[in-house]
Amino acid sequence: MEVEIRHLRVIVAIAESGSLNRASKVLGLSQPGLTSQLQRIEHSLGGQLFFRAEGGSSPTPFGHNVLTEARAVLRGLQGIRSRAESQARHRTAPPTRVGGNAGFVHLALSRWLVGRAWVPGVRLTEETDPRASIEMVTNGALDLAVVYEWPGFSHRLDDSVRAQVVVRDEPVLVMLSPTHPLAAEHTLRLDTLAEYPWVDEPPQMSQWPVYLSQTSHRFGVSMDQQHEVLFAPTAHDLVATRAALAPALITGRDVAGSITLRPLTDNPLRQRLRVVYRPDTLVGAHIEEITAEVITLYHDHGARNAHFRAWWAAEGRHTTPTF
């Protein structure tokens, strides 16, 4: 007789129950039937596995050795089953839905998520307005959104949604051509920018134009927005040809011969970066891991420009959470 998995379960059940009588009840067998089965197992293995006595059964030295191996095999079998079930769930689970519009961050995070064992797939949705992305998280259309928000325009969250602030207070830079008259300056005043054409997103696309207008008015200026564009390459081309200035993320970088970045004097334009998520999803179960990766992506990308490095050393590193 070949020893099978079911026979190993019999051996373990007898050892854990302490008697053939109790083991037969656990296994759903009659005691005589279990006794006969044990005898066949012992005959096949070539040795007695248990001492029998009125008080119960206990493993022989040979039985202890067999019992150790039997438990190892059953644990291994359980591990195989668990992995198979996990893979089956993975194949049928819906993709993790990521949204927002945070420069490179939401795209870089999506790429990172694809490599996680617990992520069945990723679907990316971009929305210019952070309110729209947060609303999509609230109604279940997204699992996670990475969004920028501006002072005075923070979106109130529903009780079913949580948020993790990644960067509490980030300055906005200005993008201009290296041959622009202002490129000779190390920092730019907001009132000076108003003397040149500006390119930005159309009004109503998000709360950024309203925030920019309100902040500019506090400084007694009004930006000369001559160009309204939706796509970054269009804005970059207008900047590179000296047709306009544009706002820029501090994680951006210079492009040789076409774009250079400058900070504003006293950093009057600020924003914060948040990860908004549903706690009842896979994202919620892994939010610390996700947020830590967002911070790593953010720092590693931004550290390529000197303005970011200076700000990070002075302020930025003190405003990000640690895990």
UniProtKB/TrEMBL annotation:
<protein>
    <submittedName>
        <fullName>DNA-binding transcriptional LysR family regulator</fullName>
    </submittedName>
</protein>
<dbReference type="InterPro" id="IPR000847">
    <property type="entry name" value="LysR_HTH_N"/>
</dbReference>
<dbReference type="Pfam" id="PF03466">
    <property type="entry name" value="LysR_substrate"/>
</dbReference>
<dbReference type="GO" id="GO:0003677">
    <property type="term" value="F:DNA binding"/>
</dbReference>
<dbReference type="InterPro" id="IPR036390">
    <property type="entry name" value="WH_DNA-bd_sf"/>
</dbReference>
<dbReference type="Pfam" id="PF00126">
    <property type="entry name" value="HTH_1"/>
</dbReference>
<keyword id="KW-0804">Transcription</keyword>
<dbReference type="GO" id="GO:0003700">
    <property type="term" value="F:DNA-binding transcription factor activity"/>
</dbReference>
<comment type="similarity">
    <text>Belongs to the LysR transcriptional regulatory family.</text>
</comment>
<dbReference type="InterPro" id="IPR005119">
    <property type="entry name" value="LysR_subst-bd"/>
</dbReference>
<keyword id="KW-0805">Transcription regulation</keyword>
<dbReference type="GO" id="GO:0032993">
    <property type="term" value="C:protein-DNA complex"/>
</dbReference>
<keyword id="KW-0238">DNA-binding</keyword>
<feature type="domain" description="HTH lysR-type">
    <location>
        <begin position="3"/>
        <end position="60"/>
    </location>
</feature>
<dbReference type="InterPro" id="IPR036388">
    <property type="entry name" value="WH-like_DNA-bd_sf"/>
</dbReference>
